[in-house]
Amino acid sequence: MSSASSRTPAPKPASPGRPKDLGKRAAILDAAKRMFTAHGFERVSMDQIAADAGVSKLTVYSHFGDKETLFSAAISAKCEEQLAQGLFAVAPESSLREQLLGIGRAFLALINSEESLAIHRVVTTQPPPAKLGQLFWDAGPRRVQEAFEAFLRDEIAAGALDIPEVHRAASQFFCMLKGEMHMLLLCGCSDRIDAAETEAHVQATVDMFLRAYQAAPARKR
Prior knowledge:
The protein has 221 residues and is mainly alpha-helical. It is built from eleven helices and no strands.
């Protein structure tokens, strides 16, 4: 007896080229991060990135379209490497302070990494107009801040925080975290990160943030 299910064509097997394509995409992103970091944006061509990744220029364009899109994707990939999946999801089993500490540690590890510092220098030394800066902002800092804002709104809804201006509070948190150490590293005035001082700075920042925005004790989770 014929049926709708029997008339449905069998699913096609997964294309054997898909894993290879994903591998090529990862290789292109790795090459882009290395080359943009070492040589800046203007002095790197799609041909050079293709050669470094071991793929054709056509493959690079088929994955990313243009150099600006590839630059943005490289910034996003770097953020995803350093900021673990679920970092900005509310975890009821952890205290609010512990979650903020985890976010703070991950954020500092990201912005103080050699790759991030190098890309930051590339962006800030570009002449106007700030097209490259806007690409960097949209692909990295803006996305991270928006994810943190969503986390804060969830905590407000849970009664743990009392924040009248979420966007401003998120900006304050990250600006406080950057602190003196990030500027010293960025300016080349320091070449080392003191782990104990970094941890003390993260804890002090989180405690200051909570003093400003934690809800009344009866509403804490």
